[in-house]
Specification:
The structure holds 2 protein chains of 2 kinds.
Chain A lengths: L2 H41 L3 H15 L3 H11 L9 H27 L2 H9 L4 H31 L11 H12 L2 H31 L6
Helix pairs in contact in A: 1-2, 1-4, 1-7, 1-8, 2-4, 3-4, 4-6, 5-6, 6-8, 7-8
Chain B lengths: L1 H8 L10 H34 L4 H16 L2 H16 L5 H26 L3 H9 L4 H31 L11 H11 L7 H31 L3
Helix pairs in contact in B: 2-5, 2-7, 2-8, 3-5, 4-5, 5-7, 6-7, 7-9, 8-9
Classes of the chains: A mainly alpha, B mainly alpha.
């Protein structure tokens, strides 16, 4: 291991990390948004829309992100829908994550038993109050473990962005290995930078999970 | 004629030229073969590692914990690079891309499977063992008639889900140069660039559909079993 080489490559990896993190978090934000909307559409049984949403969830949960990105980035432009690589990465991650998030939120809402709503109503709460004060808090606490797992999963999935020639960490590592043949140093930096990105998320995630567990029902 | 025009505009026509569709399916099989081998190895090894993880030995606990955390945090793609580019460089051996993929996916799948096995084993409450003992059952009988049937019911839907995850993750092998369905798709598009400029849409839509057809029935099965065994 040659540390002068590592010092030389460091700025390139930093740039790549920033790009990965930026696209990753934008994608995750989009995923949460899509997930909430989809879960709401299913929960409130909005006619046509809930059917479309269910189909969307099945399709995106059962295909790999790499294939989705190829389809969006190389396939869709043939229909006249062109997106640049960065937005393609965000949208791809958002669509994939949206399907997973929707499942997490939906199953959270489903585990809250009907009796909870009925009890709230019999106490004189309105539908709206019952939903926001009784059902939602319980649903959220049930959804948290899946939510955290999804975020880690999506952050890891960002590693396929290099396939649509985004200059992310994988791309940088592969590029440098190809150019200078410093395999050991490049891979070492790759692992270190992924740890920098994922360790804090993992630690924060388990903290959040532990906090949410106290709100659990019946434990 | 109209239909043919549609096919051409969306680039589906290349699929019917020569043996292109067959080549795509062969590419899919390359990916599926890697995932099936890894799934089989992971389930076998995962059962053993998972059972070992329930032991109270602190050393075993620490080692398996570290193993799980590594797998949980490192993207599979990074592990592929480490094995395919890293170990070959450091140890000087020769690994084919497919073998590296099997090694990585087995390493990853075993950890996931072991975690599922451990989770299902410790989810059986103590009183199940004690009630069995109170009825005069021997330890093998308790396992045979009480613990294992309940564990298996919790485990099977989860491990079926793991299979679909492994199939989806196998698409990454393209990035270390395995010629699987995506790569074959790219080759077909390149070869027909002039004759069928819209091939990218048709081919990648087909690959999309192929993966869905491979994974969806398995997911449905998992969901069905989960629903059926929920109350048991």
């Amino acid at each position: 291991m040659d540390f002068s080489v590592i010092a030389k490559y460091l700025p390139l990896y930093e740039k790549a990390l920033l790009l990965t993190v930026r696209i990753g978090w934008m994608g995750i934000f989009l995923a949460i948004l899509i997930g909430l909307l989809c879960a709401a559409a299913i929960r409130f049984r909005i006619p046509v829309l809930s059917g479309i949403v269910k189909a969307y969830i099945e399709v995106f949960r059962n295909t790999p992100l790499l294939v989705q990105l190829f389809f969006i980035y190389f396939g869709l432009p043939k229909l006249g829908i062109s997106v640049d690589a960065e937005h393609c990465g965000m949208i791809g991650l958002g669509l994939l994550g949206g399907a997973y998030m929707a499942e997490a939120f939906r199953s959270g809402l489903e585990t809250v038993e009907v009796i909870q709503r009925e009890s709230a109503l019999s106490l004189g709460m309105t539908e709206r109050q019952a939903f926001f004060y009784v059902i939602l808090p319980q649903a959220v606490s049930v959804s948290v473990p899946a939510f955290v797992a999804n975020i880690i999963f999506l952050l890891k999935e960002t590693s396929v962005f290099s396939a649509i020639s985004l200059m992310d960490l994988m791309f940088t590592a592969k590029d440098l290995i190809g150019l200078y043949y410093r395999t050991t140093e490049c891979l070492f930096l790759l692992v270190v930078f992924y740890l920098i990105m994922l360790l804090p998320a993992s630690v924060l995630g388990s903290l959040l999970e532990r906090r949410a567990r106290f709100a659990g029902f019946g434990e | 004629m109209v239909e043919f025009g549609l096919l051409q505009n969306f680039g589906f026509d290349v699929l019917f030229k020569g043996s292109n569709m067959l080549r795509l399916l062969q590419g899919l099989w390359v990916a599926l073969r890697i995932s099936l081998i890894s799934v089989a190895l992971s389930i076998g090894l995962g059962l053993i590692v998972g059972a070992v993880m329930t032991l109270k030995n602190p050393v075993i606990k620490a080692v398996t914990r570290v193993y799980l955390e590594i797998v949980r945090i490192l993207p599979q793609m990074v592990m592929l690079f480490l094995v395919f580019f890293g170990t070959t460089r450091i140890f000087g051996w020769n690994l084919s891309a497919e073998l590296s993929a099997v090694i990585v996916f087995t390493f990853w799948g075993t950890a996931e499977m072991a975690d599922l096995v451990r989770g299902s084993l410790i989810s059986i409450p103590r009183h199940q063992y004690e009630s069995g003992a109170a009825l005069g059952m021997t330890l093998p009988q308790i396992y045979r008639y009480i613990v294992i049937p309940q564990t298996v019911r919790r485990l099977i839907p989860l491990s079926i889900n793991l299979i679909t995850r492994m199939i989806k993750t196998t698409s990454l092998v393209m990035m270390i140069g395995v010629v699987e369905v995506l790569k074959v798709g790219q080759q077909i598009i390149e070869a027909n660039r002039k004759a069928s400029p819209n091939a990218a849409f048709g081919v990648f839509a087909t690959v999309f559909a192929l993966y869905f057809i491979a994974c969806w029935p398995i997911s449905l099965l998992a969901k069905q079993l989960e629903k059926r065994w929920k109350d048991a």
